[in-house]
Amino acid sequence: MGMQIIGHRGARGLAPENTIASLEKAIEHHVDEIEFDVRVTKDHVPILHHDEDVSDPTGRKLRISTHSFEELRDHKTNLATLEEVFESLKPSTPLLIEVKPDEPLEPIINVLKRYLGKNWPLGKASFCSFSFSALQEIKRAFPEASLVVNERWSGVRASTRARKLGTKRITMRAEWLWSGFIRQVAKSGYQLSAYTVNDPAKAKKWERYGLYGVVTDFPDRFERT
Asked: 76 near 69, Cβ under 8 Å?
């Protein structure tokens, strides 16, 4: 298995991020996994969005946690729900679902329980977060689920959390990584991915030191022939 190519918020360099179109664009370029962000609206609808606010074309911002899904979609017409992901994509699609910190987990887990292990294989959905408690709660709901520890800079914190969660997968910010560190993490048995990497030459160099994967805005640059 070569280095894993993970589409960032779908394929945010090729289509509007965290939309069904962006996820489909990532599929078009044969990524190994599609990452996207999940937040929860005031009326408990899990949606795909990175920031706490939704901005409309005029620049007006609406806080997701204090507005209903319909209010938010009126201002951002391509706003997608987590349910729409499962309804729109094929169950063979490998998903990496990022739960944003401090989001209510129950509405997200309720949607997941309607699909995972039923018409969508549990093995095709992995979960990542910067929130240790969120990953713990997901593990309680889905003990067999694949978990990924997100971390900005601390390898010690990342490996400690991964060990407690029983996972080998870690994703860290590329700006903090260097070849010796990557080699050390790989030798310790962890599968380290870097975000956000849009330079195939850098990725190829780090792969030689044991990098497991890259989270990229431009999966077309990494497409295997």
From this structure: no
